[in-house]
Amino acid sequence: MIRTFLRAAAVLGTVMLAAAPASAQVVHSLNVGGGGFWPRGFDSRVDGDVLIENLSAADPLLFDIGKFRAGQVFGEWNVAFDSRVEVSGGIGYYQRTVNSVYRDLVNDNGFEIAQDLKLRMIPVTGIVRFLPVGRTSEFQPYVGGGLTVVNWRYSEAGEFVDTTDFSIFAARYVETSTDVGAVFVLGARVPIDGDIYGLTLEYRHQWVTGDTGGIDNGFLGDKIDLSGGAFNVGFLIRF
Fold first, then answer.
1. Cα 229 from Cα 207, distance rounded (Å)
2. What's the pTM?
3. Vertex 182, ends 177 and 184: CA angle to 5°?
4. Is the pLDDT of residue 23 over 50?
5. Which residue in 54, 115, 205, 212 has the fewest CB atoms around it within 10 Å?
6. What's the domain count of the chain?
7. Whole-angstrom Cα distance, residue 124 to residue 74?
């Protein structure tokens, strides 16, 4: 996690230095809130994705990728150098556990052979936003983009089948890493009390891929697609 924050701080610092005019009046704001994240579907995930491989194996697991949709929370610090350009650094938290079973195999007693597939993501983002009508309007649309540094942890725990002799064994496979990708945002702010408070509505999409370690780490796929969309609602306070 320390490396994650250092890398994100370096990205944000570089963006701020590049975006700041020499004699800008700086305005700070804090935005906190929550929303929902949904992953890429079956047809659009990267080659070698562990979830796709689990669903496509000779003895596949049975689960729905859509079940990885889940809530998330976030906090973001914004620095505006004029009425139309703003940079921000933020952090979020997402976690979801999805139950799975073997599609075509059952235990000798007739019970399902079950697993828990768990994904956690902590994205640290550096974003530049452009507000075409500025911060003085009663409705403030914006568009932006930047980098996201995602600390993630993926695990599969439960019972598994050895396909050489069809014996059943209990195991837990885990991989944790940090990967960098791109993020796009599109949203709007609605002031509540003059220019001090506001409500934010935002769609964002991230493109990130991680390495699971593949077979050597107990996974059928050597990649995990961390890309997906999110819709967030936040409360903004300017200082």
1. 9
2. 0.88
3. 135
4. no
5. 205
6. 1
7. 10
